[in-house]
């Protein structure tokens, strides 16, 4: 009877070990299942993100293009109504209206003009294409704008092409 008691305790210990081992195997399987599901979700996320980025690159300008088409329509309408009998004034008025609409469109999309004339020359925003003396301006000041510069959400889109004031020219005495 004594020899069977240790067997019962050993068998009970083995049963406990088997249960612990089975629980650990089940836990491992659960982690593996969770990992595979998470991996699949991540792969789907990557594919969806790539598709969204491709669509954005392809269709990202759609909103502004729709707005530009309105200006295009107005330009076409103006061109069909050009009548030599009415003179240049009617054409000028039409172009002025289209120009105002285009300026408004640019502002709506975060595009604004770079300030130039009367401002200190700044090579980050201005491209000097000419220098000249002008007694009305201090040296290094922008005195004339040849082409407007633009900022897009405060990032330079195009530098303004300008003329910059220089110091009074000195005359050489012989």
Structural summary, described in words:
- The structure is a single chain.
- The protein is of the alpha+beta class and 174 residues long.
- The protein is 55% helix and 18% strand.
- It has 3 helices and 6 strands; from the N terminus they run αααββββββ.
- The strands form 2 sheets. The protein has a 3-stranded antiparallel β-sheet with strand order 1-4-5. It has a 3-stranded mixed β-sheet with strand order 2-6-3, with no helix packed on it.
- Strand 4 and strand 5 form a beta hairpin.
- Helix 2 runs antiparallel to helix 3.
- The longest helix is centred in the N-terminal third of the chain and has 56 residues.
- The mean pLDDT is 86.
Structural key phrases:
single chain, 174 residues, alpha+beta, 3-stranded mixed sheet, 3 helices, 6 strands, 18% strand
Number of helices: 3
Strand content: 15-25%
Shape: elongated
As a percent range, the share of helical residues equals 55-70%
Backbone CA Rg = 38 Å
**Structural class label:** alpha+beta
Roughly how many Å apart are the termini? Answer: 136 Å
The strand count comes to: 6
Biggest sheet layout: 3 strands, antiparallel
Average pLDDT over all residues = 86
Uncertain residue ranges: none
* Strand adjacency order, main sheet: 1-4-5
- Could you state the order of secondary-structure elements as H and E? HHHEEEEEE
